[in-house]
Amino acid sequence: MEIEIVKSLTENFEAYSHHTNNDIEFWFARDLQHLLGYAKWSNFLNVVSKAKTACEISDNLIIDHFADVGKMVSLGSGSKREIQDIMLTRYACYLIAQNGDPKKEKIAFAQNYFALQTRKFELIEQRIKDWERLIVRQKFSLSEKELSSLIYKKTGSDKNFGIIRSKGDKALFGFTTQQMKNKLNVSKNSALADFLPTITIKAKDFATEITIFNITDKNLEKENTISNEHIKNNKGVRKLLLERGIKPELLPAEEDIKKLERRVKSEIKKITKNPDKL
User: Fold this and answer.
1) Contact, 131 vs 264, CB < 8 A?
2) Do 21 and 149 have their domain in common?
3) Could you tell me if residue 197 is left (phi over 0), alpha (psi between -120 and 50 degrees) or otherwise beta?
4) pLDDT tens column, 212-225
5) Is 142 found in the same domain as 74?
6) What is the model's pTM?
7) 166 is in which domain, residue-wise?
């Protein structure tokens, strides 16, 4: 396919995209029918039907990607009438293109266009999740440093922090810190939180913040009273998670946060050096 044709088709497809109030990108089926070169609406609906089946098979809700709507169109007499139309997500457009005839130039282009657009969205979504996990982990590191400093100040021992943290983990997970490391295949010298999913890091951080607040507010000074406070807070957070159907000890380990951080930084450097490839 010649570059000029690809450029022209790209401009056409992007010109027909729309956005909702929630900034969700969508296309109207009538527009897509035209873009893919289908002369008859009935023939195009056959392809849409196959796309809906593919959507359902892939465990996605059809209503999330194919929304029936009515559209007013002008007639030659100057009057208007309502016609059937469908609001399609990027994924729905991708499925429709995949069920078309790839021998046709416009459909071949659409298959690649929406595949790349869908992949780009997935990459952006994953990048956002990666950033969130990094930020949450950094926040938790600060909370633990503050708690460690406070415990040393109150008890006069730098060993009490590890003891109290492990008791907190036992209350949150039902396992000590080392037992959770063994369960998730985390090395002895690595931090457990570096391998936890975002929701669990947030849970630990929340319990830690409450402990910090109450140590100061209640003037707790002994290891056993601070331990009891931390245990109570972690049990409270666990109760909330369980009520929402989340068992923190059963969540699988995620990528080492240090590897994730290196990868993200490396990607940023590549983008900085080659902005034209964005």
Assistant:
1) yes
2) no
3) beta
4) 999 999 999 899 99
5) no
6) 0.60
7) 126-277
